[in-house]
Amino acid sequence: MTRIFAYVPFKNGVTDDVALEYPDAAKKIDAGASLTAVVTGHGADLDNVADALTKTYSEVIKIDNEALAYPNAEIVRKALTHVIPADAIVLVPHDTFGMDLAPGLSIKLDSAYAADVVDFEGMDGATLKLIRQELGGAVSTHVTCDAASGAVITIRPGTFAPADEEGASGTVVDKSGEAGDLSAKRTFLEVVEAEVGDVDITKSDVLVSIGRGIEDEDNIEMAQDLADAMGGVVACSRPIVDAKWLEKSRQVGTSGQTVKPKIYMAMGISGSFQHMGGIKGNPFIVAVNKNPKAPIFQVADVGIVEDILDFMPELQEAIEDL
Amino acid sequence: MSMIITPADYLLFGFFPTVIFSFLLPVIGVGLFTYIIARRIAPLVRANPDYRFDNIPERIKNLIVVWFGQIRQPRYMRAGVLHIIIFAGFLILSIRSTSLVIIGLDDGFIFPGLDGTLGTVYNVMKDYAATAVLAACIIAAYRRGIIRPARYAVPEKYGHDHTAEAVFVLGLIATLMISESMFEASAVAYNYQALGDAHFPAVFSLAWFFSKMLGFASFATLQGLHIIMYYVHDVTFFFFLCFLPLGKHFHVITSIFNVFFMRVKKGNIKPVKYGVSDEQLDDLESFGVKRLEDFTWKHMLDFYSCADCGRCSDQCPANTAGRPLSPRFISIKARDLIFKNYPIKSGVIYTSDKLLVEDIYTEDEIWSCTTCGACEQECPLGIEYIDKMVDLRRGMVDEGMVPQSLQKPLKALEKRGNPYGKMEKKRADWAKEKTFAQTHTVKDLGKDTADTLYFVDSITSYDDNMQDIARRTAIILEKAGMDFGVLGKGEKDSGNEVLRFGEEMLYQELKAQNTEAILESGVKRIVTADPHALNALKNDYTGLPPVKHISEIVAEKIKSGALTMTPCKNRDNVYVYHDPCYLGRHNTIYESPRQALDAIAGLTRVELEKSRDRSFCCGGGGLMLFYEPEEETRMGVIRVNMAADAGANVIVTACPFCLVNIQDAIKVAGKEGEMEALDFTQLIEDHLA
Amino acid sequence: MEILVCVKRVPDTAENEFELNAEGNDLDRDDLVYSVNEWDNYAVEEAIRIVDNLGGSITVVTVGDDEAEEVLRREMAMGANNGVLLSDDAFEGSDGRGIATLLKAEVETGNYDLILTGAQADEGAGQVGGMLAAMLDYPYASLVNKIEPGEGKIKVGREIEGGNQEMNEIELPCVLSIQTGINEPRYVGIRGIRKVAGVEIPVKGAGDLGVDAGSVGEAGAKTKRVDYFVPDPGDGAEMLDGDTDEIIEKLIEKLKAKGGL
Lengths: 322, 689, 261
Prior knowledge:
heterotrimer; B: 689 residues; mainly alpha; Fumarate Reductase Iron-sulfur Protein, Chain B, domain 2; 28 helices; 11 strands; 52% helix; C: 261 residues; alpha/beta; Rossmann fold; nine-stranded mixed sheet; two-stranded antiparallel ribbon
């Protein structure tokens, strides 16, 4: 039987969204596989998170150690190598922590490695079939992964269907004693928070991006309200910066920022390739433009022919009513 | 009673011959002047070579028209007229001043040739000249000191104000005029009183007034004044001579050389190094201007020659738009550095490890230039800027100092032959547009042959909004009965801006590839609708068939009757033609597009105040579209507002880059719906019979 | 400081339109242009800045065929001192682990204090740096956007979610994967590349590196790409019709499905 171990990161006692996405991924790997959540940390937060995970996972392994209080990938890796069996499949999110942890973990476990997986097509014997993307999302590939001696897989967050939180009533297994030596040659110092008020559009998953269709500086507020409702930030195309309505740091395009959101709301943007060149990572693009011939409709996923000045407030209201 | 005693014979305190001063002052003055000039020439000797002894007839013509004729001065009427008066006065009085120096040694001296009637005429002229110069100086000082035209102001970041120096020099000139006139007037008054000799100066001249004023002065006063004024003149004259090379008035001496050596060709860019062929470029240790001595001697002479008149910066679109560039200070900062590096007195010599773009200039300053050429067109002294900008950029490119926003298009040009990174095979896709393709086919000269090559260039080939220009151009050529084709994927970017942005080797590659493809196609002539391509192929490339802009073809074909125009379809519109820099200033094609437009009956056309060789750049083409300058207002917006002020609602241009910039600017200026921009080919094709 | 920077020659995403070949199992590579992986440029620039301040030398290494030499030359034109090309028929088809194995062998021939890689390359895996570090038992940090060298150790900033920066102290020797934006890489033109055109670049095969040919290449790969495919991009946008309320309803449904709400 395939044994899958899913590493669940958490922050301030709240688990990462990926915790609910693992069950779907695991099912796609092998419907009959066993799925175990693994959490590492220290103190009450860890205990709470482990307990909470029992609602989704039948088994939750926790490793408690002072050295794991901050998720230093170098230390987490050491801890995991001691508790994960050699032939297991390990799931890790493909995020800034997963990228730090997973490649080295695969070496230490002597397992195969596949990164940023967007879909699985099941097991063929010990061979795992999966789908990932290359060249900045321009092409997809089918990949086989020999998992006979285990595999470490990072999955793209947000691509697997989130599970119902109340699906299981599992147990917590404390393996703190098996973690072994947790010294590391890399020491965590501090997290330097991004400057307050300094909006970094490259970091946001939802961008409400405005172009000439906004017509007037005062109308930017509408876009801001919509962005707030959607939990995103306001970006823009070059003319808005030229008009000095927004700072340069908000501009998307070859001459501005390169962004990789999940949702890109192109509001009154015509869609020059200079602008589109700044959008990477194949986001879901919603284009609203009153000109039905705007080139943006060629590249968008969803197109709406409306005046953004009428459309944005209505959409915002509808979202807030949800 | 005898005549007044001249400085050559005068005995100071009754025993000391002043002729000793008359001898010593010129010896010291000329000696000092020679030394100063030698110091000033020192950096020119160490500078890079510059070939400026070609096209001698053209250079002599410039000397006559630009230097002697002061043709560019009246472009700024008030300052220009004042300058012409002072300049003409100086020319006339230079003979008098030289004579005066010798008169101090030999009072009988008369300048060769000026002993007869000519001498009498000359004397009248010089009296009026001195008077006019004095008057001009007073007005000029009033302008500089009291009215203070904005053009002369020095922003804090560029250093100290030059008004004091300007007024001081005007004072020196005034002193020369007054002392010369006084010297003469005192002699006239004396001799009249003593002998009744009535050789009065020209009526109402300064000397005439003085001689009348001194009519009742005592002999002793007049004698004293005569001697004192002579030496005031002598001292001032030599002081002035030695003072000139120390500041902005060096142009009084250098202008004649600077104009003689000024640019005679248009539109081209200097080689990386004179005397080094394109094939030898790889052997060069360093490219471009990184340190002071990397400038050519002519460019250093330019720095010496700058009179700080501010006309270049007043015309500069980058300066007007609030970019960190003011061409005048490119010269002045370099001159200040030369003065620091090559001091007149021995002393601490300023040295710096920094590149010029880190020391006296900034990177943004040098990237801000659109190479529109307005500054060079204006400079009364023939100072060049574009070649200096390109040389400084070559230096930056060589050091890897290229803004990230420009690195992407440069890399794409290297890999794909266009700045957008689009695929080569899609270069002629504009001809595949459905409605166009149904009725028109464009030959691919990779497979087919034709007489004429239509060189499309990158923006018209790839930019969705500009491809229409290509289709219109093709239809115009077709209707004009021309046998033409395109190079398709064999065409690369013309490299006009690649060269001007300092990426010489990339430009060389593009040039080599295009040249080979063009020659291989066997065409007899080249046509383009992109003035930047026109300029590169015509002025930078060598050995190609003749190149013309589509507006020239249209004007010719209308004249020959091959093309006829229908009456204007939009009688309510008011059209204005915007001269693209690379069509107008760099290639002097001003009339063809206007003639073609005027051939459309009933078309209402107005002119911009800044038009033809004073056209105001739209914001720049080629790589400039990718560069993100710091600026207060976009150049295009300024231009659109100018067109609105001229009463136009349709701006017609003849360059795809102008069209992009102006179309954008109309939107930024909030004039969408009120104004529109059209390319020349669009308007013409719409009105072809 | 002796620095090794691992670089890769990749299809240039900015300058290509990717299409599949006639068989549909590989990219149509005829019209592709290749260049150095964007992230690697930042790594080399960072190495140059460190060496400018502290002295030392920079070696760039890549695994690839003859054509991969061009990226080594480009990085040497930027300022790297030496280049090494790891090339052997046996290396073809290596997965990340195979590449890391080869790089490990190369690292062990030198005496490097610092090994830099780009945070990721064309495959978007971001795997080689972390694997190499684990094989060498060197400490590792990924997505590094700040480096402050110190005595025997360095301070590194990692780019983490929300635009925050995680500061770490890391002992030398170590492996770091460099994120874009850490610096502004200098421009390299044709002239720069020509200047280093004559510099000898040693080519090392399996024998030179002392690696078992069976542990790398296709034979050693546990992860294999079967084919390429392009998910149906559709014909432009799906246009939403109807009155505004209907449109908004449909849109919200879609946004929900994409995790946008």
